[in-house]
């Protein structure tokens, strides 16, 4: 079997800006929007697995994303915290959804011809962090937890008066 060793490519100024933005988000996370950061920690040995779900990764090679995440964690919390990271994955929303990491979704429950318009729904979803990578005409607003989906639901109802929303959950079947 062939062996392919992929090495991270040198960071560009755009990539350095992503690291800065991610470090800022780690220090002061917002209630909704991207990036979505999932951390799984274990006390013994102290280790953390990190998934950073962010459509900004689209143009960043997959093999470079872990190093950028680690640099952002070091900038935000110091070298000691960075050294606890045993796995760092950077994924776009569609990539994470296909892996089952974002099973919850908030979708419009609109009726044709009623206000607000389709464009207003789309705008509200995009402002709340929806992804258009999978389909540029249909934003997807996905979440890792039901609580996050509920918070977005409440935000959208307030941000777009008269709108109606539904929270859905994808459930994958286990094959035996």
Could you explain how this protein is built, in words?
With 176 residues, this protein is α+β, with helices and mostly antiparallel strands. It folds into 2 domains: 13-91, 2-Layer Sandwich (GMP Synthetase, Chain A, domain 3); 101-169, 2-Layer Sandwich (Alpha-Beta Plaits), CATH 3.30.70. 36% of the residues lie in helices and 19% in strands. It contains 6 helices and 6 strands. The chain has helices at residues 13-27, 65-77, 79-83, 93-98, 118-127, 146-159, and strands spanning 36-42, 47-53, 85-91, 104-108, 141-143, 165-169. A 3-stranded mixed β-sheet has the order 1-2-3. Strands 5-4-6 form a 3-stranded antiparallel β-sheet. A hairpin with a 4-residue loop joins strand 1 and strand 2 (47-53). Helix 1 (13-27) crosses helix 2. The longest helix is centred in the N-terminal third of the chain and has 15 residues, at 13-27. It is globular. The mean pLDDT is 90.
What are the SSEs and their pairings?
Blueprint: H1 13-27, E1 36-42, E2 47-53, H2 65-77, H3 79-83, E3 85-91, H4 93-98, E4 104-108, H5 118-127, E5 141-143, H6 146-159, E6 165-169
Helix pairs in contact: 1-2
Short description:
With 176 residues, the protein is of the alpha+beta class. Helix content is 36%, strand content 19%. The protein folds into two domains: 13-91, GMP Synthetase, Chain A, domain 3, CATH 3.30.300; 101-169, Alpha-Beta Plaits (2-Layer Sandwich), CATH 3.30.70.
Q: Indicate the CATH class of the largest domain.
A: Alpha Beta
Pairing-aware structural class of the strands and helices? alpha+beta
Oligomer: single chain
Largest sheet: 3 strands, mixed
Q: Indicate the low-confidence ranges by residue numbers.
A: none
* Helix/strand order, N-terminal first: HEEHHEHEHEHE
Rg computed from alpha carbons, rounded to a whole number of angstroms? 18 Å
């Amino acid at each position: 079997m062939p062996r392919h060793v992929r090495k991270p490519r040198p960071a560009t100024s755009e990539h350095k800006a992503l690291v800065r933005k991610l470090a800022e988000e780690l220090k002061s996370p917002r209630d909704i929007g991207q990036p979505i950061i999932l951390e799984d920690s274990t006390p013994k040995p102290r280790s953390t697995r990190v998934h950073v779900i962010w459509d900004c990764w689209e143009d960043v090679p997959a093999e470079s994303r872990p190093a950028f995440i680690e640099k952002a964690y070091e900038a935000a919390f110091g070298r000691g915290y960075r050294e606890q990271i045993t796995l760092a994955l950077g994924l776009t929303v569609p990539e994470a959804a296909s892996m089952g990491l974002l099973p919850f979704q908030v979708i419009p429950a609109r009726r044709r011809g009623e206000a607000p318009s389709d464009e207003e729904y789309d705008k509200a979803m995009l402002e709340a962090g929806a992804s258009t990578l999978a389909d540029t005409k249909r934003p997807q607003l996905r979440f890792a937890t039901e609580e996050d989906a509920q918070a977005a639901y409440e935000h959208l109802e307030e941000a777009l008066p008269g709108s109606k929303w539904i929270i859905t959950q994808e459930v994958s079947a286990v094959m035996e």
